[in-house]
Specification:
mainly alpha, 434 Repressor (Amino-terminal Domain), 2 domains
């Protein structure tokens, strides 16, 4: 596709008019119109502003072969994953997990993953399936995978969660306090330090990060992707070392480190 076609597609996907795009980057709407008709191309400064506006890379704007590949926001059907988790929990006798599945689905009802139509419940179910696939059969861990965002994102209180004390403690450790530009570094340092004291919390957080970095290409801006990469490289080696120190998590630690580091390398090369 041409630059003009890419620009028009991105503008229409975000339901913006040519006038709105023009105002956002400081040009006339006639300029935007001429770009979309491929009569002219913007200079480098305008290209960077457009990329920032649409939260894509400059390459996504100028690449003439966009659209060659079909992409997916979700790989698995969340309802199938829900059935799998419930069935597995029942067969393994994971009582907290059995209660957590339906509670999480109801708590996240109506929520969507960033910049997609994928139901948010897909994310915690993905964590639970990821853990089960690595032969993690700990009830508190799987239940906390399912409920790790309900306090932070759904306004639930820890006391109302239908799980035992250990799972509730894990969820509280994983709940992220809201930050500002001024206190972000201090909050993150304290947050990850607390998680690092609990191998099970470290395990869940690493699984969570695996899922989040696989979706950040379409869910986050370039700036946020770079910030996510830096944060992961700063804090997750410690979490992985905590997991590796637990013999029962050795295999999981290997797989998690491989996925995290390989995904980060792919992003850095593409950026």
């Amino acid at each position: 596709m041409s630059f003009g076609t890419n620009l028009r597609r991105l503008r229409e996907e975000r339901k913006l008019t040519q006038e709105q795009v023009a105002d956002a980057i400081g040009v006339t709407f006639q300029a935007v119109s001429s770009w979309e008709r491929d009569e002219y191309k913007p200079d480098t400064e305008k290209l960077i502003r457009l990329a920032s506006l649409f939260e894509v890379s400059v390459n996504a704007l100028v690449e003439e072969k966009q659209g060659v590949f079909k992409t997916k926001d979700a790989i698995y059907n969340w309802e199938h994953m829900k059935t799998f988790v419930k069935t597995s929990a029942k067969s393994l006798g994971l009582k907290d997990t059995q209660k957590a599945v339906d509670f999480a689905a109801e708590a996240h009802k109506g929520q969507k993953r960033k910049k997609s139509e994928v139901p948010y419940i897909y994310h915690p179910l993905n964590l639970a399936c990821h853990a089960l696939s690595m032969e993690i059969k700990d009830d508190a861990v799987i239940a906390a995978c399912l409920l790790h965002d309900v306090v932070e994102d759904c306004g639930k209180n820890p006391e109302e969660l239908p799980v035992g004390e250990e799972a509730r403690e894990l969820i509280e450790l994983l709940t992220h306090k809201k930050t500002t530009d001024e206190d972000r570094d201090a909050v993150l340092k304290a947050y990850y330090a607390s998680i690092a004291k609990n191998p099970k919390a470290a395990l869940i957080k690493c699984i969570d990060r695996c899922n989040n970095i696989t979706t950040m290409s379409w869910g986050l801006s370039r700036e946020r992707i770079i910030r996510m990469i830096k944060e992961t490289e700063q804090y997750f080696p410690k979490l992985l070392s905590v997991i590796k120190a637990e013999p029962e998590y050795n295999n999981a630690a290997w797989l998690l480190q491989y996925q995290i580091e390989s995904m980060l390398d792919i992003y850095k090369r593409l950026l």
